[in-house]
Amino acid sequence: MKQSDITALSDEQLCSACSDRNGAMEELLRRHEKLVRRCARSYFLAGADGDDLIQEGMIGLLHAVTHFDPKREASFRTFATACIRHRLISAVRSAGSAKHLPLNDALPLHTFSLDAPPDEGNPPPTLQSPEELLIGREEFAEFQRRLSGVLTPLEQQTLELYLEGLSYLEIAQFLHKSTKSVDNAVQRIRHKIARLQPPASTAKPFANII
């Protein structure tokens, strides 16, 4: 296939042609390199530089190229974005980055932004002491252990991707499921979280995880 013919193909057509070793894969990687760089700018990898993050993002893009299913409802770009972000977040977590904390520390138990305007009619949030934050994290770690014991593999994967900020459509593409299956999994997760809440608790500290 001529180079001019390759560049004229859509992303989805290129994915279908990748198995023929005709330059389609190289064209897809070249075409979406800017997407990788754009995604990588949102993350910080401890002990590494920007090129390391771009390399991780390219691995995610390669995964998208080799695993994209054109029969699914989303575009290749949507699937590629999900794969790139998932790879970057996994790399950041593995490195123990302080900017993007692991799941146990990243959930908004009591978080707020100093840049955000205060809510009208509501008092500003109270700053927690290090001791209070530590207790909150320990409580959540115990809650997460109990939750993991009742989630199915699909529900666990869905929860992790949801907490990473992926949309239902992106999660569906990444897991090769329908958006309805993802929505059903999220609803089951919510019910299980509600059942795990202490019955005497009025604060329900983990009710808004998902």
Description:
The chain is an all-alpha fold and 210 residues long. It has two domains: 10-99, Rna Polymerase Sigma Factor, Chain: A; 101-112 and 126-210, Arc Repressor Mutant, subunit A (Orthogonal Bundle). The chain has eleven helices and no strands. Helix 2 packs antiparallel against helix 3 (24-31), helix 5 (50-67) packs across helix 6 (76-94) and helix 10 crosses helix 11. The longest helix is centred in the middle third of the chain and has 19 residues, at 76-94. Residues 97-135 have low confidence and may be disordered. Belongs to the sigma-70 factor family.
Brief summary:
This protein has helices spanning 3-8, 11-17, 24-31, 33-40, 50-67, 76-94, 103-106, 130-148, 153-163, 168-175, 179-196.
Strand content: under 5%
Structural class: mainly alpha
Q: What's the CATH topology name of the largest domain?
A: Arc Repressor Mutant, subunit A
Can you tell me the overall shape? flat
Mean pLDDT rating? 72
Overall radius of gyration: 20 Å
Which features characterize this protein?
RNA_pol_sigma70_r4_t2, Rna Polymerase Sigma Factor, Chain: A, RNA polymerase sigma factor SigS, single chain, RNA_pol_sigma-H_factor, 2 domains, mainly alpha, Arc Repressor Mutant, subunit A
